[in-house]
Amino acid sequence: MALFRRTPASVPATTARRTVRDLRVGETGTVCCLEDPEMALKLLEMGCVPGVQVRLSGRAPLGDPLMLVLGDQEYTLSVRASEAATILLKE
């Protein structure tokens, strides 16, 4: 399983995967990989690793930050919308 995804410029935008930012409140997904290598270390240290289940538990009134619940242990994490956009979900 790849940790990072690099998308060639020739890949159309319609093939883009769903990200954590795309989740609706209460919806869950499974982390596939992290798109931004610079942000990846921070997210990995906070428990956002490939294969972990993530649930969007809330959004701030203006949509940023997002509150996530990671894994079975109900670990809660708040991330910016821009950070959530780099977390790709399995299809």
From TrEMBL:
<dbReference type="Pfam" id="PF04023">
    <property type="entry name" value="FeoA"/>
</dbReference>
<protein>
    <submittedName>
        <fullName>Ferrous iron transport protein A</fullName>
    </submittedName>
</protein>
<dbReference type="GO" id="GO:0046914">
    <property type="term" value="F:transition metal ion binding"/>
</dbReference>
<dbReference type="InterPro" id="IPR008988">
    <property type="entry name" value="Transcriptional_repressor_C"/>
</dbReference>
<dbReference type="InterPro" id="IPR038157">
    <property type="entry name" value="FeoA_core_dom"/>
</dbReference>
<keyword id="KW-0408">Iron</keyword>
<dbReference type="InterPro" id="IPR007167">
    <property type="entry name" value="Fe-transptr_FeoA-like"/>
</dbReference>
<feature type="domain" description="Ferrous iron transporter FeoA-like">
    <location>
        <begin position="18"/>
        <end position="91"/>
    </location>
</feature>
<dbReference type="InterPro" id="IPR052713">
    <property type="entry name" value="FeoA"/>
</dbReference>
